[in-house]
Design a protein that fits this description.
It is found in: Nucleus. With about 525 residues, the protein is an alpha+beta fold. The chain has 3 domains: about 45 residues; about 70 residues, Homeodomain-like (Arc Repressor Mutant, subunit A); about 300 residues, no CATH class. It is built from 17 helices and 9 strands. Helix 9 crosses helix 11 and helix 10 packs antiparallel against helix 15. The chain starts with 18 loop residues before the first helix and ends in a 10-residue tail after the last helix. The structure holds a DNA duplex (21 and 21 nucleotides).
DNA sequence: AACCCACCCAACCGCCTTGGA
DNA sequence: GTCCAAGGCGGTTGGGTGGGT
């Protein structure tokens, strides 16, 4: 038995809509809203089925839809999104404001698909159908800004797609979680691994007193990052299994080097501001790796229990990010740079959601920059874009390798924080930092909720991991600014109580069973 | 002018999902 | 848990259109 029709179609009109019908439908919806689509045609005096009315409205008559030619950037976006999502037209449409899924679908089928085929690109896989290098390059340049295109290769596109996919999934996840939190139904992952009580530093505040906490560290074996954030009342950060972190970053970097994916990495990280060549960066990282072995035993065999001394007096609403220079940051209480460390240069961020209250933080080498990483400081001082991959990698390495780099800070955690916050450099109020790794079980679903750097904004940072098709896992640190402060406060409260309970219990269990250990080996 | 053909895209079809009873 | 209505979604259709012969 076939499916029953959506409505009784006897006597109903089909085919193209007339102007009169459009006017009737528009007038009715403007006055009454659409309500039940099934009932609408009768009420509106139309001899159409409800479904037909709905489609006509959503795809054509709705006032908030944009019609007409697609811009180059829209085309580029459609191709990118199609590479990630396939024929998920509604999902694609959700990233193209005011465009309907139907319109995008049609445009794809009639224009873009053919264009790709002409270029020798399989429109399904987005990979070259044959070795038509010129066409493939054209394809790449249609996806990658010109400033980047020269440095990349086609694999960059695929990786970008994977990364973008992760980002989209993370966005969706965060949205889901936010919704759950708003409903008070959110719970941390059941497979949470926490640090043992013993591993916590005395200077880390007791969890139960934390103002800010929302951490899910989905523990697994191997090379992942395990973090626990015991957010102090005056800021963020607590403990981190830096042995694993370092091992993972090290592994990641070697994979990147081995697999010739640094270009991809650079592109995704920093676009036009790539100060080092791929070879230069590879060599630097390898060299650094060798030279760092000597102190690795000490620096990485211990679980570093950390409290950020770079917590920027958040409780007082101050932080170094609101300073216009490192020296000012220092005056505001942030520690000064000592070793070959990172420091922050804050600059006013253009086009920010709230320019008056937001500052841009930029990572740069302040002094004693590692000699084997030739990052020209001026390039970053002048740049109006996120720092390049070498700086970020160097930041991780610098942080990891030196153990710590700041006076008064026993740990590199501040550097991690800086890396996260560096994402505020993005042109929008949200962004992400992505790190690839070849470990198949790279873990980590960490979420940090902290009070924002300014009094009027809260920042939401998370780390997520997902697997790429090519065997690489991708760790994403995403960042967003939540502007709906009231909602956020509500969410915040909900999280706090639940998490304190959950984490306390987890800590107790861990302590009792000695399930968790830190100071993982480096291999 | 008439015909053919390829192309475009609005609209349709049918399956799937969701949410309420 | 089941049923069902409503809406969402993606694949496909077919009428309109324009260019070529």
């Amino acid at each position: 038995m076939g499916r029953a029709p959506c409505c009784d179609k006897v006597g109903l009109k089909k085919g193209n809509w007339t102007l009169e019908e459009d006017q009737k439908l528009t007038a009715y919806i403007n006055e009454h809203g659409h309500g039940s689509w099934r009932a609408l045609p009768k009420k509106a005096g139309l001899l159409r089925c409800g479904k037909s009315c709905r489609l006509r409205w959503t795809n054509y008559l709705r006032p908030d839809i944009k019609r007409g030619e697609f811009s180059a950037s829209e085309e580029q976006k459609i191709i990118q999104l199609h590479a990630l999502l396939g024929n998920k037209w509604s999902a694609i449409a959700s990233h193209l404001p005011r465009r309907t899924d139907n319109e995008i679908k049609n445009y794809w089928n009639t224009h873009l698909k053919k264009r790709l085929i002409k270029m020798g690109i399989d429109p399904v896989t987005h990979k070259p159908q044959c070795s038509t290098l010129v066409s493939a390059n054209n394809y790449r340049s249609s996806l990658v800004p010109a400033s980047n295109a020269s440095a990349g290769n086609l694999s960059a596109v695929n990786h970008m797609a994977q990364w973008e996919s992760v980002r989209l999934e993370t966005e969706a996840r965060l949205a889901r979680e936010a919704e759950m939190r708003a409903k008070g139904t959110w719970r941390p992952s059941s497979s949470v691994h926490y640090l043992t009580q013993q591993s916590r530093s005395p200077d880390v505040h007791d969890l139960s007193s934390k103002r800010t906490f929302a951490s899910v560290a989905n523990g697994s074996t191997g090379t992942g990052i395990q973090m626990q954030l015991n957010a102090a009342s005056n800021g963020v950060f607590g403990e981190l299994d830096f042995g694993k972190l370092r091992a993972d970053i090290s592994f990641m970097a070697s994979c990147l080097v081995k697999n010739d994916n640094l270009t991809t990495f650079q592109q995704r990280m920093c676009s036009p501001y790539i100060a080092m060549s791929e070879t230069e960066l590879s060599n630097s990282l390898i060299k650094w790796e060798k030279t760092s072995q000597s102190n690795a035993g000490m620096a990485w065999s211990d679980s570093l229990k950390l409290k950020s001394s770079n917590n920027m007096n958040i409780a007082q609403g101050r932080d170094s990010s609101s300073c216009s220079s490192p020296s000012q940051a220092s005056e505001h209480g942030s520690p000064t740079s000592t070793l070959s460390s990172l420091d922050l240069v804050s600059k006013q961020k253009p086009n920010y959601t709230d320019p008056s209250s937001q500052k841009v933080r930029r990572l740069c080498w302040h002094d004693n920059k590692p000699s084997n990483i030739s990052t020209p400081l001026s390039a970053f001082e002048q740049a109006q874009s996120p720092p390049s991959a070498d700086v970020i990698l160097a930041a991780w390495y610098g942080a990891a390798g030196k153990g710590h780099s700041r006076e008064g800070s026993p740990s590199p955690v501040p550097c991690l924080e800086e890396i996260m916050q560096c994402e505020t450099l993005n042109d929008t109020s949200e962004g992400s930092l992505l790190i690839g790794s070849k470990s198949s079980d790279l873990l980590c679903d960490l979420e940090l909720v902290s009070e924002g750097m300014s009094s009027s904004h809260h920042h939401h940072t998370s780390v997520d991991v997902d697997g790429g098709d090519d065997g690489h896992d991708i760790c994403e640190i995403s960042y967003s600014t939540l502007l709906a402060e009231d909602d956020y406060e509500c969410e915040w409260t909900n999280i706090l109580e639940e998490d304190v309970e959950a984490v306390s219990a987890a800590l107790d269990d861990a302590e009792a069973n000695e399930q968790l250990s830190f100071g993982c080996s480096m291999n």
